[in-house]
Amino acid sequence: GVRYFSISNDGNRVAYFKAVDDRGKTGLHVADTASGSQERLVYQPTAERKFAMEKASWSPLRNAVTIALVDDAVGADCDLFEIDADSGLETKLGTNLCTSAANFAWVKDGSGIALTGKLSDASTGRDASLAEAGSWKLKRLTAASTSFGQYSLSASEDGRLALLEGRNLPNISAIDMVNGKQTRLFEGTSRGEGAYGLASAPDGKVVFTVRVDDDLTIWEMAGNGSESRQLFPSQKGADDVQPNVTADNKYIVFESNRSGLPEIWRANRDGSDPIRLTSGGENSSPSVTPDGQFVLYSAKREGKYNIRRIPVGGGEPEIMTEGDCSWPDPSPDGKYFVCATGTATDWHRRRMMVYPINGGEPLKALSVAFNSALYNRIRWSPDSRSVLYKDEVEGLWKQSLEGGEPQRLPGFSDVRVFHLAFDNDDSLLFSGGLQMRQIVILEPPPK
Hints:
Elements (H helix, E strand, L loop, with lengths): L1 E6 L5 E7 L6 E7 L7 E4 L5 E10 L5 E8 L6 E7 L5 E4 L7 E6 L5 E6 L9 E6 L5 E3 L6 E2 L5 E2 L5 E15 L6 E5 L11 E3 L5 E7 L2 E7 L7 E2 L9 E6 L5 E6 L6 E6 L6 E2 L6 E6 L5 E8 L2 E8 L6 E2 L6 E5 L5 E6 L9 E6 L7 E3 L5 E2 L5 E2 L5 E6 L4 E5 L6 E2 L7 E7 L5 E15 L5
Antiparallel strand pairs: 1-2, 2-3, 3-4, 5-6, 6-7, 7-8, 9-10, 10-11, 11-12, 13-15, 14-15, 15-16, 15-39, 17-18, 18-19, 19-20, 21-22, 22-23, 23-24, 25-26, 26-27, 27-28, 29-30, 30-31, 31-32, 33-35, 34-35, 35-36, 36-37, 38-39
């Protein structure tokens, strides 16, 4: 039952997470490294708290172990705490330092805690940052276009950091679902074309995202891949993602943090006159209904997602699901919408839920493949009889609305799909390609 561990700076003790009951509840333990003796349960969260991640890092400044805790009453806010290795007393370090973090580790000289994760809601990848000891202000260590893995942070004795960097080099392609013929529309570069949004417009154009400098922008191109151009001017520090085009070709609906928080926006088809449709933040992954009248989107409240809808012309949002669900997509026949439950680490809850288009109780719960990636995004087939979704490793899956085992789509060997959509001819558009991995060593700044 032992999980993630951290060794003390003198090498004499090890802190680790270990199950404390047969239901899998864990606590922070400390033992001697020489023999494993002197094992003690040092800390167990109260009923209101839980471990945000089972990661620990021994402080170089004190006889204490740093852990991440989340308060269930507050929601998703995550804080770092030092736990005294002898008394178990806790000391809070800063505020919300690990809300979107994937990993953390003390820098050996005690100057701060290095983290991988989203530095802000505007981030699309996992950044590397430093929470400076004392002030606990976050300082970015890497370029915003990089993304670092969850299990890849290690600090050396001489102050270097080792990280595993991921780079996506997607192409935008179209594949005929009948004969399997594939056509490449846009050659991939390091700008991640289409990775954070891909949609077909009624006029035959393809709308997609491109990273320009550190920001994600929305572009369009002709259906044959020519005449690509940026629709919206770049706004520093803002990402425009998940574009949709209404059926009358009048508007583009998209997600953006250009107002400071993730919200749903609408702009004219040419990119002019952007207007914010939602408020309050944590509103994401919009999808327009086939009649062009409503926008379905995910709203995160108190740490959980539900599906809401709002008129394309603006107005009050309406709650469509009471249960936890995200990444909505309406069926082309206008009868249903599908959304995702569970997370990548919460695999036993991963399902696709089918709801009536006007909300209510779910009609079906569709099981998914083990490596399913139910984000960015789920798509109905043009006949509204099945749902397509991505695989974490390669390719796409197709799940019939009637149930049964999911079917892996042919033609995607060695291809990681990042985003998908159907065009006006029912061909599948997708942004996909190679994922590159490399080990990056960050040198400490000169003294």
